[in-house]
Amino acid sequence: MASPSFILTAMAGRRLLLLIGLVAAVAAQGGNNGGGEEEEKAGKAAALVPALFVFGDSLIDNGNNNNLASFAKANYFPYGIDFAAGPTGRFCNGYTIVDQLAELLGLPLVPPYSQAQASVQQQLQGVNFASAAAGILDESGGNFVINQSISFFLHGLINSNAGRIPFNKQIDNFEATVEQIGEAIGKDAAAAMVGRSILFVGLGSNDYLNNYLMPNYDTRRRYNPRQFADLLADRYAAQLTRLYKAGARKFVVAGVGSMGCIPNVLAQSVESRCSPEVDDMIIPFNANVRATLRRLAGDLPAARMVFLDNYGVFKAILGDPAAYGFAVVDRGCCGIGRNSGQVTCLPFMPPCDDRDRYLFWDAFHPTAAVNVLIAREAFYGGADVVSPINVRRLAAL
């Protein structure tokens, strides 16, 4: 993995271009973001791929948890304050990474599976299967399940599929979607469409924050950090292979971003210090994911595997926030307590005013400004951030 200093140097030449694009993209969100108008506008551009299919957690969930028995929800104000449709279930003030990627690909914003599962017409340009609190491991995120939280905290007992949609279940839903599309347009046409589409996959954060680092899980007693990273990589490889067998060929897999300096972690220190220990756990996982993608690209015919180094991007921003247009990196825009990170953003809590200057929206999630920046790096960036090729080149294959 490239060092943060190398990434800072390599990204320096793109900062001005990114900042110009970032200002334009974020400005566009306020007046045209989240309803039918922006989808129509995006849809008028020539789409680079047939569809975008999304798998992940709260970083890219856009409403799949809204009707679940879960504490992991964001369908209330001030979430969505900069999204024209208001609160939709997105865990930030505006765009997620995949919202911006959809626009760059010339696609409409991708609907959540909870909305699109009954409409093949909506599925034809992509579906978002992501679910807040989801992990690579089915048991991750169990602390967010309503009616099981007391049992979980007392006994560590959870229902592995309640309150969130783990990656394995997201894959089940994708397989069902591919079958539905095949019934509508024919299996051969569906296979061709899915094979040319892009899959964005971003998981792993909850396997650490809401599993390995949780005292009521016994995971940390059973595995050291290296063993746990190996376990996750093995499961991830099998899951990505399932997606391949369902017809996917073009993958963008995001590594876990730096979590040692998120507001919730900062708030656990009286001095508001970052936790190198947390990041040291993530580094071997990201290295494993990168190696797994290289192996799968060699083993699976016609598979294209792209790795997005979220960790490197976050470290670069933290190393020189002003260069990327950020002024506040040590607290959330919306939250309670030390670093606005001890309790995350509550309903109708007033957020900060200058949201585009904040790195973090709440105790755990970045602002829309960061999401737009990362998406543009994924689409246009060099091999120091997205490798072996960027999303624009992947779409053209």
UniProtKB/TrEMBL annotation:
A GO CC term assigned to this protein in UniProt: extracellular region
Record-linked InterPro entries: GDSL (IPR001087), GDSL_esterase/lipase (IPR051238), SGNH_hydro_sf (IPR036514), SGNH_plant_lipase-like (IPR035669)
Signal peptide: 1-28
Superkingdom field: Eukaryota
GO molecular function per UniProt: hydrolase activity, acting on ester bonds
Protein name: GDSL esterase/lipase
Coiled-coil residue windows: none
Lineage start: Eukaryota, Viridiplantae, Streptophyta, Embryophyta, Tracheophyta
UniProt-annotated location(s): Secreted
Keyword Secreted set for record: yes
